[in-house]
Specification:
There is one protein chain. This protein is α/β, with parallel strands linked by helices and 187 residues long. Helices cover 45% and strands 16% of the residues. The protein has 8 helices and 7 strands, in the order E-H-E-H-E-E-E-H-E-H-E-H-H-H-H. The longest helix is centred in the last third of the chain and has 15 residues, at 144-158.
Length: 187
């Protein structure tokens, strides 16, 4: 059951400009097409520098920004958006969802934080949600196994793919970690 009472419609907004900043080109293109069909006027950027340039040029009312970009951190783009238009609605996207980065995103001015893979409906709900009301629960949340797998792989990447260091930090046996890393991600 979809709860729509918290969600406004894009037609209620005068400025429908949406900036999508993501270095995953196929994902960004798909999301841009879907959001255009939903009524947004979409601009795209693939990195921090191009994202900031687009913010200065277009001053978007909405933005979807990936946390990790090839040339830096998406929080820099969020900060620039908030400096140019305090009323902008920004949603952070990331494949590495965790509490500290979610807190940092909200402090910089993001109104929501979504883990990848997020579809266009999730993004639209987050962008148009009434900020004074509680958000509806996600339709298809990640399973506990998937969250665990994402966390382990995130720590592995942060440890520069060093299995021994990752195992030490996660307080697990190195061979156990190697078995987990060799498996595919759970659904």
């Amino acid at each position: 059951m979809l709860v729509t009472e918290n969600i406004k419609n894009i037609s209620n907004f005068e400025d429908k400009s949406l900036l999508i900043v993501d270095d995953d080109n196929p994902f960004r293109e798909r999301l841009a097409r879907a959001m255009e069909k939903k009524g947004f006027k979409v601009f795209q950027a693939e990195g921090v520098k191009k994202g900031i340039d687009c913010v200065k040029k277009e001053n978007p009312a909405f933005a979807v920004v990936d946390l990790r970009l090839g040339d830096g951190n998406g929080l820099e783009v969020v900060k620039e958006i908030q400096n140019s238009n305090i009323k902008s609605r920004v949603v952070m996207l990331t494949g590495y969802g965790n509490i500290p980065t979610a807190v940092a995103a909200i402090k910089q001015g993001a109104i929501d934080y979504l883990s990848k893979p997020a579809d266009a409906d999730d993004v639209e709900r987050a962008l148009l949600a009434d900020p004074n009301k509680k958000a509806a629960p996600p339709e298809n949340p990640m399973s506990a196994d998937r969250v665990k797998w994402e966390h382990i792989h995130r720590v592995f990447e942060l440890c520069n793919r060093n299995v021994s260091e990752t195992a030490r930090r996660l307080k697990m046996h190195r061979r156990t970690l190697q078995r987990i890393l060799s498996k595919r991600s759970p659904k």
